[in-house]
Amino acid sequence: MAEAMFRHLACQHWGCSEDELRKHNMDVLSAGVAAADSAPASREAIQVLKEKGIDLTQHLSRQVTEEMLEMSDLVLTMTPGHLRILQNERPDLASRMRPLHGEGCGISDPIGGGIEDYQHCASEISDCLKSILDELIRKDAEVQ
């Protein structure tokens, strides 16, 4: 959900399509430390994001790779445990990694829960992503 939501927020900010995000030096990928490769999004996740105008029907999960980590300027994790795993695997890239939640709290995983659990998770993710996007936009403006 986070990848699609972040893309949506960034597109809204710049008034562009997802294909045009790279023109704004933005690329967004999602991968998990324990994700099953090529699993579709859950029915509940698709429904919750559809209500927000986001299409998740084509999403397929994937495992995080060394290449993804090396190419990333920022790696956001859903939980502190995920952060520790990635930092242990690539301590040389640890400065690029941080939890999605600014206070270091984990984002609840709604898998196996009902639609309300997915709505709560989407709300948590959205709040965190808005804050991160604002931060990235401010930093980009300072550089230019």
The outline comes out as globular
CATH level-two architecture: 3-Layer(aba) Sandwich
Q: Please provide the count of β strands.
A: 2
Distance between the termini: 31 Å
Q: Tell me the radius of gyration.
A: 15 Å
Q: Could you describe the largest sheet, including whether it forms a barrel? A: 2 strands, parallel
Order of strands in the sheet with the most strands? 1-2
> What structural category characterises the helix and strand content?
mainly alpha
What's the CATH first level?
Alpha Beta
Domain module tally: 1
β-strand amount: under 5%
What would CATH call the homologous superfamily? Response regulator
Helix content: 40-55%
H/E series: HHHEHEH
Q: Which fold does the CATH topology refer to?
A: Rossmann fold
How confident is the prediction overall: mean pLDDT? 95
Q: What's the number of helices?
A: 5
Q: Which parts are unreliable, with pLDDT below 50 for 5 consecutive residues or more?
A: none
